[in-house]
Amino acid sequence: MSIKSSNLGYPRIGENREWKKTLELFWGGDITKAQFDSEMEKIRLSHLQKQQEKGIDLIPVGDFSYYDHVLDTAVMFGLIPTRFKTDENKLSIQTYFEMARGSKGKVASEMTKWFNTNYHYIVPELEDVQPMLVENRPLTLYKEAKEKLGIDGKPVILGPITLLALSKGSSEQKRSELLKELVPLYIEVLQQLVEAGAEWIQIDEPILVESIDNEQLHQFTEVYEAFNQEVPNAKLILQTYFESIERYEAIVQLPVAGIGLDFVHDDGLNLAHLQSIGFPEDKILAAGVIDGRNIWKAPLREKATLIETLTNIVDADRLIIQPSSSLLHVPVTVENEQNLESIVKDALSFADEKLREVVLLTKFAKQECAIEELIKCDQAVNVLNHSPLRNVKEVQEALIHLLNYSTTRVEASKRKTLHDKRWNLPFLPTTTIGSFPQTKEVRRERLKWKKGELSNEQYEQYINKEIKKWIGIQEEIGLDVLVHGEFERTDMVEFFGEKLAGFAITTYGWVQSYGSRCVKPPIIFGDVFLREPMTVKETVYAQNLTTKPVKGMLTGPVTILNWSFVRDDIGRTDVLNQLALSIRQEVEALEANGIGMIQVDEPALREGLPLKQEKTEAYLNTAVYAFKLSTSSVKEETQIHTHMCYANFEDIIEAIDALDADVISIETSRSHGELIGSFEAYHYHKGIGLGVYDIHSPRVPTFEELSQNIERALKVLDYRLFWVNPDCGLKTRGIEETITALKVMVEVAKTKRSVLNYTHFMA
Q1: Residues 630, 579: Cα–Cα separation, whole Å
Q2: Overall fold of domain 395-402+411-762
Q3: Which of 431-445, 609-623, 648-662 is the least confident region?
Q4: How many C-beta neighbours within 10 Å does residue 414 have?
Q5: Long-range contacts, 547-550 (Cβ 8 Å, 24+)
């Protein structure tokens, strides 16, 4: 074969988030199942057609999902928790969405980060499951593409070893047994695909970029030898991404037709392995040379050199050019962005533009275009690199003199004594994470303001009205520590991106975070600095409405970095410290205006963990330093809070402690309190709020449920340190649902508090 272009996956959401809108119409009962299926098919086929028009040779099919591709794979093979099974409705679309979102009486499956990205997948549960092939989903989608568009696509399926590695709820022995049960089912899927005419089949095994032991290596050998023996005609591409692969020499010898490697995020190790060890002559190399996770135009001249290097190792007719990962992680197209400065826009490349880069490099490799065409494409980034936007003298001098900024505070126990005296809060103080429902009215008024239909004064009056209303609601509910509700904020990172210098905000740059939840990451294109206070006005207004403390709400530097598209002309650590110095100034402004509780959220701290264990310590040290750089200039009596999202905290518990926050709140509800175990083996002596109910499911928790969650936590944690709160912000929830849930939460806290007060008095 000649050199081919390929793609690993395409954004599901559509240029105008039509996928999201269709989902939410269906969930809301506004369209029928037939209408839902019809609209989703239209969206799915349009994505395939666009890739065909761009000139991609190997177009992925099966990457499209109604919610999440890991959930799709689990359901396809019958890995459905018992609580979601009924005699009448075992495997319907209702069951599928119940697993993802929960329903009355059924807690949703846990949700966590997909490797080190901001995409969330639904964690398969392995207890009491019996694998079976429910539907050959890749086959259905392969046939659809072939019959309706004439596209001979490349079916994509998540591999069995990665599927089980990302699951929960079984012993290693049980996982081994399940793997043996899954292999024949995968073989059946592959056989049917080959019989239908599929030439190439992509099996994603990204777990290969993490540390794999001898047992896992043995499993890979057994599984892929079984695939090869039973389906010898299947041309499998074993696809990896996000890092360099472990055990390179053994993995490239597996009996597959091709190996997909990431040459963008591998720190040069995949290339080094190729050069030192070589590459099998009986395999194709699917080379991920275009960054599938960031949004800058690729340096095509540099990429051409890489391809020339690869063709010196692998014959040109055994090379596939592709992105480094699925394009799920980037927006759809730059074409619709009309409000960006040209110097920034011209340097951007979203999914559609990345496909063009892949095709252009493929043409170059086939000697169908000249090097001058590639060099021309590099000019826009070069212009931005040399502009004043990336060369702000004051910012760069501040980085040089970081040692001038203190990152330490007085010992935590002494601070707690001061805080107890200042606030005089009861045991189990109740609060929320920050945001309250962003209703259609709130979004409508914000849109009117952005369109100029409301003046700044009118919009401020509206926001103040919402703040006042919800301060009153919080006082009526009986919460102990209040928040202003964040009605002026679109997103916890985008808001700060709009305020800080060095950021650009797109109009249509949406990406999927989880389910239908889409976020619009800001773009850090230049040196970052604070122009003026960002949150003081609304927070001070709220505090003046009540005698209870109101928390100032900020997003921390690590999260802003991890949830943004970051410039790649300088190191991420430098960008992180620029952000930290900016947040430090905002913290100081809040304190100077009388705000004594300041929450600096870091929900994305763990998701930034490197996939390689040897890089973890350096990352955590950098993250902790940036947080402390942001928060350590306050007075001793000022209380610093932070918040973190779904994560396995046992591997970062020491870093959490090192942040030196006075109170940390952590999402734990979807993992059914299992994360509390992280604190059983580690003595944590600062304030902690383990989220007692899941805000991502459209349901009101029961008194009994919350009571059990609190009791479980108090078996591990000192009740004098424990705070009661939901597990995340309430922005996406309905008003009545939010109020009812918080009333239950406060009622449970007061009930537990009365017992603790009696116990404390008797002691």
Answers
A1: 8
A2: TIM Barrel (3.20.20)
A3: 648-662
A4: 11
A5: 548/475, 548/479, 548/480, 548/481, 548/482, 549/423, 549/481, 549/482, 549/596, 549/597, 550/471, 550/481, 550/482, 550/483, 550/484, 550/595, 550/597
SS3 204: strand
pLDDT of residue 672: 45
In the predicted structure, residue 698 carries a pLDDT above the cut 80: no
**Alpha-carbon gap, residue 481 to 595, rounded angstroms:** 12
Structure tokens at 476: 């009526």
Tokens of 348: 């951007």
Section 368-380 average pLDDT: 92
467-477 burial, b if ≥16 CB within 10 A, otherwise e?
bbebbebbeeb
- At residue 214, does pLDDT exceed 50? yes
Residue 528: its H or E element: strand 523-529
Nearest Cα to Cα of residue 647 among 79, 107, 116, 98: 116
pLDDT at 233 over 90: yes
Q: What is the structure's pLDDT at 675?
A: 58
Burial class (CB in 10 A: 0-12, 13-18, 19+), 194: middle
Location of each CATH 3.20.20.210 domain in the chain: 4-389, 395-402+411-762
Q: Could you tell me the CA-to-CA distances from 94 to 90, 107, 143 in Å, in that order?
A: 9, 14, 25
Distances 411 to 406, 408, 414, 551, 633 between C-alpha atoms, Å: 14, 9, 6, 22, 14
- Between 648 and 390, whose confidence is greater? 390
Measured distance CA(558)–CA(629) in Å, rounded: 11
The strands making up 235-239's β-sheet, listed across from edge to edge, are 4-5, 319-323, 284-290, 258-262, 235-239, 200-204, 154-158, 60-61
Report the C-alpha gap between 526 and 347 in whole angstroms: 12
Give whole-number Cα distances, 546 to 422, 434, 482, 592, 597, in Å: 16, 16, 9, 18, 14
Beta strands in 21-87 (DSSP E): 60-61
In which residue are the tokens 């119940």 written? 98
Give me 512's structure tokens: 């999927």
Please give, one letter per residue, the 3-state secondary structure of 561-575: HHCCEECCCCCHHHH
CA distance 364 to 7: 17
Read off the amino acid at residue 533. Answer: P
pLDDT of residue 20: 97
For residue 591 the two structure tokens come to 């304190």
What are the tokens at 24? 């939410």
Nearest residue to 730 (alpha-carbon basis) of 496, 562, 537, 483: 483
Contact (Cβ atoms closer than 8 angstroms) between residue 330 and residue 354: yes
Q: What is the CATH number of domain 4-389?
A: 3.20.20.210
- Residue whose C-alpha is closest to residue 604's, from 731, 728, 434, 484: 728
Cβ atoms within 10 Å, residue 589: 18
d(CA 145, CA 59): 10
Contact by Cβ (8 Å): 181, 211: no
Mean pLDDT of 236-257: 97
What the block records as the tokens of 295 is: 């949004």
Give the C-alpha separation, 418 to 409, whole Å: 13
Q: Are 689 and 665 in contact (CB under 8 A)?
A: yes
321 in helix, strand or coil? strand
Beta bridge partners of 275: none
Eight-state DSSP code of residue 635:
-
pLDDT of residue 669: 54
**One-letter amino acid for residue 407 of the chain:** T
Q: Are 536 and 359 in contact (CB under 8 A)?
A: no
| Contact between 380 and 346 (Cβ < 8 Å) | yes
Name the residues annotated as catalytic.
Answer: 696
State the chain's mean pLDDT as an integer. 93
What is the gyration radius of the CA atoms in the chain, in angstroms? Answer: 26
Q: Do 158 and 201 form a contact (C-beta atoms < 8 A)? A: no
